[in-house]
């Protein structure tokens, strides 16, 4: 009864960087450390960092002027960063370099006269930061169906949220291509996201049950769960406590993957619990076969 982990899973480089910079700041400063919005989309990691002193706020005015602001991995809108600088707040930038590149390309397309189309989730922090940074001069499209409801200009430039699925990206680009005269496209999906999505898809084709571990608000984890559901029974959980014995009834092989903001310690706890459940079921069936009902 094997438990198989996907080839690629868990922390990406951008998340590792954000956590390293935050831990370093918490260890080396007497000043209060703030972040606007969750540093990463994982409640268990945030809780751990909060106990060490990280303060999460939603409003920049809640930050002490002699405090330190950590810019989270999803980035922040430029107006907020400028305001923090004007307030005299020290800034530690932990924005993922892939997200920084997305901002750079978005601004360049607008500067070059293209109507900017951002393929992404309307409420995602990354998308909101782009919109606010370029004064809402952007059309956000989350699905192919939205393309037909959009009025395009002659010149269109496309970028994409770094954690989007390639499949959704290609479908939308192909539809837009049929409606515009000039189109520039930058595939800004993070390679780590693509590797995790492909690995999850391949594994889910070969197991009877997939356990996807990560924050319930994590876009990339929800996307992994959606991909796995195309092939097999799938459950999206945050911690080992959510696992149910009934899921494993009659299952012989189990797959595990995890979102880009899921730490190794949570993944290891889940894997251990899954193995315990499978071992119990094996022992039960073994005893049943030795002592059949008369």
- How far apart are the termini? 28 Å
Q: Which percent range describes the beta-strand content? A: 15-25%
Shape category? flat
**Regions with pLDDT < 50 over 5+ consecutive residues?**
none
Q: Give me the secondary-structure category.
A: alpha/beta
Give the overall pLDDT as a whole number.
93
Largest sheet: 4 strands, parallel
Strands of the widest sheet, in order across it, are: 1-12-10-11
Oligomer: single chain
The CATH architecture assignment of the largest domain turns out to be 3-Layer(aba) Sandwich
CATH topology of the largest domain: Cobalt-precorrin-4 Transmethylase, domain 1
Count of spatially separate domains: 3
Tally of extended strands? Answer: 12
The count of helical stretches stands at: 10
Which percent bin holds the helix content? 40-55%
CATH superfamily of the largest domain: 4-hydroxy-3-methylbut-2-enyl diphosphate reductase, catalytic domain
Whole-angstrom Rg: 22 Å
Return the CATH class of the largest domain: Alpha Beta
Could you state the order of secondary-structure elements as H and E?
A: EHEHEEHEHEHEHEHEHEHEEH
